[in-house]
Design goal:
This protein has 135 residues and is an alpha/beta fold. It has helices at residues 8-16, 36-45, 52-63, 75-86, 95-103; strands at 3-6, 31-35, 66-68, 89-91, 107-112, 115-119, 131-132. Helix 2 (36-45) packs antiparallel against helix 3 (52-63) and helix 2 (36-45) runs antiparallel to helix 4.
Length: 135
């Protein structure tokens, strides 16, 4: 079962905003996973006055996900190191991280107009640069 690695910003958006195609976004049999570095970042943010509520809700979502090894003090760096070594797909809302993931050969699940969008690794052939699940 392929893993989709969730970053901090993606989990916070999932916890705080409506994603229209969340229930119909079908990538087949996948597992959403969360790196230890992302959990630590969410725990730090949960103590922040401005972002604490969102981060707390995101921690609740992450609690139901399988944890993976990528460690480090900087979540984005840990995710990129993992993608470079193992490949994979990352769910992120961070534009600069998205570019780095794609440059490293990884796939990206992002949000566009409140819909989840898959951008497969560039080495894969698909029916287009982006595939959007039906609304």
């Amino acid at each position: 079962m392929p893993d989709i690695i969730c970053d901090t910003g993606f989990l916070m958006r999932m916890a705080s905003e409506r994603i229209r195609n969340l229930d119909t976004f079908d990538l087949g049999n996948v597992s959403y996973v969360v790196p230890g570095a992302v959990l630590r970042e969410l725990e730090r943010l949960a103590t922040d006055a401005a972002k604490g509520h969102e981060a707390g809700k995101a921690l609740g979502l992450a609690g139901a996900m399988r944890r993976i090894i990528p460690e480090g003090d900087y979540a984005d760096r840990a995710i990129l190191d993992h993608i470079r070594e193992h490949g994979g797909t990352v769910a992120t809302t961070d534009t600069s991280l998205k570019k780095e993931i794609k440059a490293a050969g990884g796939g990206v699940v992002s949000l566009h107009d409140d819909n989840m969008v898959l951008e497969p690794p560039s080495g894969r052939s698909s029916s287009g640069a982006r595939r959007r699940a039906r609304r």
